[in-house]
């Protein structure tokens, strides 16, 4: 059984490699190969970074909240991203520096969303009040509030600027800015390295607060650390390409099914690989095979939503 589990990352990695080669090579014009690769390689890197950050952050979030159907989006970060973009477009217009310059826009969104997450942390986990129902309630309230404000502004905004705003709100990997890509890679890489030594504590935290404390884990400190890591990763991925609501939920639950282990060292690696493969393969099918001009988030959210409903019915029968 251990041999089979050890082969899972190899199998998924090979699948990622094949999908990546096909994504880069299919329908490429030999005469303009350099130009085509300059466009496709940054997009491929963006797919991998987004997949890794969303998958890894969702796994951590589900563990610290002890719930396998939640995603970090419950904190309202995707709605906050929409609100930030709407406010910028509403007050400054589509030609303002903070809207046109992708680097400045990216950093502004990341900073605001991380600050929001820290505020939510103080509300949700301060003095041991990490109640899952309270978490869901606060997340729904924040998400609804942000969405309502965004919708109000979008109704009265200039129609031309509204179209520009809509293009920014769909999760898109087209025209990825290489400067943003480097900053995103650096933030994600340093974050993962920073938390890598603490992944083993997730095995104990998954047993519950009392058991974790009895086994010598500094529960409050660990939860705070993991929550901040989740906030950074999900903020970076959302600011990089937009919101993909059901991706994390889908890949984490699929990974749990194929890995069948409680060890987060294995779960983390496999989740990252499955998430990367899901994005790369989906983009390959949509863009290269079917030639459909459709945001990848539409397909993933559709499949993830159906899987979510399936799990709800499955759990209700137990």
Question: Topology of this structure?
Answer:
Layout: H1 2-25, H2 33-65, H3 77-92, H4 97-100, H5 102-124, H6 132-156, H7 159-169, H8 178-195, H9 199-205, H10 209-214, H11 219-241, H12 247-259, H13 264-289, H14 296-317
Helix pairs in contact: 1-13, 2-8, 2-11, 2-12, 2-13, 3-5, 3-6, 3-7, 5-11, 8-11, 12-13
What is the β-strand count? Answer: 0
Structural class assignment: mainly alpha
CATH architecture call of the domain at 48-245:
Orthogonal Bundle
**CATH class value of the domain at 48-245:** Mainly Alpha
Residue share in β-strands: under 5%
Helix percentage = over 70%
Per CATH, the superfamily of the domain at 48-245 is ABC transporter involved in vitamin B12 uptake, BtuC
Largest sheet data:
none
Distance between the termini: 27 Å
What's the gyration radius in Å?
20 Å
Number of helices: 14
In the predicted model, the low-confidence regions spanning at least 5 consecutive residues are none
Q: What overall geometry do the principal axes of the alpha carbons give?
A: globular
User: SSE order, as H and E?
Assistant: HHHHHHHHHHHHHH
Mean pLDDT: 84
Annotated CATH topology of the domain at 48-245: ABC transporter involved in vitamin B12 uptake, BtuC
């Amino acid at each position: 059984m251990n041999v089979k589990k050890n082969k899972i990352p190899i199998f998924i990695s090979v699948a990622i490699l094949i999908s990546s080669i096909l994504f880069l090579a299919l329908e490429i014009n030999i005469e303009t190969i350099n130009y085509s690769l300059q466009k496709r390689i940054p997009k491929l890197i963006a797919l991998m970074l987004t997949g890794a950050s969303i998958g890894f952050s969702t796994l951590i979030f589900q563990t610290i909240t002890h719930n396998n159907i939640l995603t970090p989006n419950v904190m309202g970060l995707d709605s906050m991203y929409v609100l930030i973009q709407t406010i910028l477009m509403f007050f400054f217009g589509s030609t303002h520096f903070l809207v046109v310059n992708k680097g400045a826009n990216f950093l502004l969104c990341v900073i605001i969303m991380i600050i929001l997450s820290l505020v939510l942390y103080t509300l949700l986990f301060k003095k041991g009040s990490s109640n899952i129902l309270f978490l869901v309630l606060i997340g729904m309230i924040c998400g609804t509030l942000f969405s309502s404000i965004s919708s109000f502004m979008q109704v009265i905004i200039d129609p031309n600027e509204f179209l520009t705003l809509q293009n920014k709100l769909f999760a898109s990997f087209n025209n990825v800015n290489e400067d943003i890509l480097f900053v995103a890679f650096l933030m994600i890489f340093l974050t993962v390295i920073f938390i890598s030594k603490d992944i083993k504590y997730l095995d104990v935290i998954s047993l519950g607060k009392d058991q974790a404390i009895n086994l010598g884990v500094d529960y409050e400190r660990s939860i705070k650390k993991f929550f901040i890591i989740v906030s950074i990763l999900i903020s970076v991925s959302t600011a990089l390409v937009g919101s993909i609501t059901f991706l994390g939920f889908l890949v984490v639950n699929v990974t749990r099914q194929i890995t069948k282990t409680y060890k987060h060292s294995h779960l983390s690696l496999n989740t990252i690989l499955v998430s990367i493969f899901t994005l790369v393969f989906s983009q390959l099918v949509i863009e290269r095979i079917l030639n459909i001009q459709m945001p990848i988030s539409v397909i993933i959210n559709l499949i993830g939503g159906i899987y979510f409903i399936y799990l709800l019915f499955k759990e209700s029968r137990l």
